[in-house]
């Protein structure tokens, strides 16, 4: 019996395991960042592509001596996180799995797959829809004698904020799956607070998108759709229960 029963870990043992999980996570990010830096010019070409398809020409400028160097390392670090995402999820799962019950562990694979898929869909939505529209809108409102010369540092901050923000927002169905699995969320509850949720969605959209109403509505529409999908996800989980 003792051989089959896992030994309960103490507080210091948990800290030690967490430390090694973090070390492995940082190592995976470092390796992913190094690989990304080897292809940094190709990655930058992809990220700069939206600026070449606007009706009004956009010029990007480096405004500091070390600006391009810092940008390349920043993009490599973000790309390294994305590349090492499976390792990050695996390390997190290995840390929390011993504390879960059998009926909770069965949601592991759906949650991981759903989270990765939703994040990629959100990032794609930001890159292919939000960013081109925002660049077209803002480059088109300048005066005729004013050129669109943007700081490349600001451009990549703008790009990263929209893409990662959209990726995180698209995790709404995943959050619904987790909260429904542990019994904190039900479809009747979500239907009852649908109107309140739409107001919250509009507020979130105004923070993620540029400060114009059209971009906010473009972001709000998929969020409302995601909320309805989340109700369906909650219904499926509670039905199985």
Could you please describe the fold and organization of this structure?
The structure is a single chain. With 241 residues, the chain is mainly alpha-helical. Helices cover 75% and strands 2% of the residues. It contains eleven helices and two strands; from the N terminus they run ααβααααβααααα. It has a two-stranded parallel ribbon. α6 packs across α7 and α10 packs across α11. The longest helix is centred in the middle third of the chain and has 33 residues. The two termini are 31 Å apart.
Q: Topology, pairings included?
A:
Blueprint: H1 11-38, H2 40-48, E1 59-61, H3 67-83, H4 85-96, H5 102-105, H6 108-140, E2 149-151, H7 152-169, H8 172-181, H9 187-192, H10 194-208, H11 213-240
Parallel strand pairs: 1-2
Helix pairs in contact: 1-3, 1-4, 6-7, 6-8, 8-11, 10-11
Rough shape? flat
Count of DSSP strands: 2
| CA distance, first residue to last residue | 31 Å
Strand portion, in percent? under 5%
Low-pLDDT regions:
1-6
Number of helices: 11
Q: What is the mean pLDDT?
A: 84
Summarize, please.
This protein is mostly helical and 241 residues long. The protein has helices at residues 11-38, 40-48, 67-83, 85-96, 102-105, 108-140, 152-169, 172-181, 187-192, 194-208, 213-240, and strands spanning 59-61, 149-151.
Key terms:
241 residues; mainly alpha; two-stranded parallel ribbon; flat; disordered N terminus
């Amino acid at each position: 019996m003792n051989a089959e029963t896992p030994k309960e870990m103490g507080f210091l043992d948990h800290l030690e395991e967490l430390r090694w999980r973090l070390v492995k996570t940082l190592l995976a990010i470092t390796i992913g960042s190094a690989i990304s830096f080897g292809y940094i010019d190709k990655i930058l070409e992809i990220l700069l592509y939206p600026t070449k398809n606007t009706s009004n020409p956009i010029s990007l400028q480096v405004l500091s001596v070390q600006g391009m160097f810092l940008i390349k390392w920043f993009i490599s670090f973000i790309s390294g996180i994305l590349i090492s995402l499976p390792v990050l999820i695996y390390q997190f799962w290995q840390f929390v799995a011993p504390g879960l019950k059998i009926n909770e562990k069965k949601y592991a694979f759906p949650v991981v797959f759903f989270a990765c898929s939703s994040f990629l869909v959100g990032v794609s939505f930001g890159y292919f829809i939000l960013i081109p529209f925002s660049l077209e809108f803002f480059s088109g409102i300048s005066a005729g004698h004013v050129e669109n010369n943007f700081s490349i540092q600001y451009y990549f901050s703008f790009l990263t904020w929209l893409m990662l923000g959209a990726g995180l927002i698209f995790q709404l169905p995943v959050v619904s799956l987790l909260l429904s699995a542990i019994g904190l969320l039900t479809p009747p509850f979500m239907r009852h607070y649908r109107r309140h949720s739409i107001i919250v969605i509009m507020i979130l959209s105004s923070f993620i998108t540029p400060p114009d109403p059209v971009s906010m509505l473009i972001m709000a529409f998929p969020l409302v759709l995601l909320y309805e999908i989340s109700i369906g996800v909650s219904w499926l989980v509670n039905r199985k229960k």
